[in-house]
Design a protein that fits this description.
Elements (H helix, E strand, L loop, with lengths): L13 H18 L8 H14 L8 E5 L5 H8 L4 E6 L2 H13 L5 E4 L13 E7 L1 H6 L5 H15 E11 L4 H7 L4 E7 L3 E4 L2 E4 L2 E7 L1
Parallel strand pairs: 1-2, 1-4, 2-3, 4-5
Antiparallel strand pairs: 5-9, 6-9, 7-8
EC number: 2.1.1.-
Subcellular location: Cytoplasm
GO biological process, one term: methylation
């Protein structure tokens, strides 16, 4: 895998996310505020819209959200009629929060505490679609063994998917070419989901990149 690195950040540590979701779980229990929607509602809408408009995936397809956090993306999919939904996260409080929200919203979504950075992780199921809204970004900010963790992540995502399965990755750190390099083993880029652009210093860029890859 290409050696592309970023400065480390607390966002790349499990301690940060455990602390964050412990607070958000307590807050939800007191106020019913679901907390931050990572990447925002517009990013979620773009992913959901693409899935609904694409013939590669139907409403009965199995969908796994990797690093699901509070489960907002899965809640949106459930509200649109998708049935076979599961979220995993390495933070137990994130999973407890997601379970509580889904129960209150009366959606049947499965959640499980799983560390996607466990080497050679054996999935309990193989999925038609895997989703990542910021998880690979967080891994890329890890303060230690970043390249090893990225390699494990790519291998595990590949093992989660059925042959021909779809992987949708949303990132604010990685460009399209960089993602293609990171996922060149076992994945083919199918499509880039349009996102807003900005211009700075005469150069145009995107605030986020959302790519659709397919397991080969």
């Amino acid at each position: 895998m290409g050696d592309i690195t970023f400065s480390s950040s607390k966002l790349g540590t499990k301690e940060y996310w455990d602390s964050t979701y412990k607070k958000e779980l307590t807050n939800y229990q007191e106020t019913k505020d679901i907390g931050e929607v990572w990447f925002g509602h517009n990013c979620v809408s773009r992913i959901v819209t693409w899935l609904k408009s694409n013939t590669l995936v139907d409403f009965t397809g199995s969908i796994l959200d990797i690093g699901c956090g509070n489960g907002f993306l899965l809640l949106e999919l459930a509200s649109q009629g998708y049935k076979d939904l599961k979220g995993i996260d390495y933070s137990e409080d994130a999973i407890n929060l997601a379970k509580s929200i889904a129960k209150d919203e009366k959606h049947d979504i499965k959640y499980e505490v799983v560390d996607v950075l466990t080497p050679h992780l054996s999935p309990s199921n193989h999925y038609d679609v895997c989703l990542d809204k910021g998880t690979f970004d967080a891994i890329s900010l890890s303060p230690s063994e970043t390249e090893v963790k990225k390699e494990i992540y790519v291998q595990n995502v590949h093992s989660f998917l059925k042959v021909g399965g779809i992987f949708i990755l949303a990132s604010c750190n990685w460009t399209e070419d960089e993602v293609k390099e990171q996922f060149k083993k076992g994945f083919l880029l199918l499509e880039r989901i349009p996102t807003p652009t900005f211009t700075f210093g005469g150069v145009q860029g995107n605030r986020e990149t959302i790519l659709v890859l397919q397991k080969t």
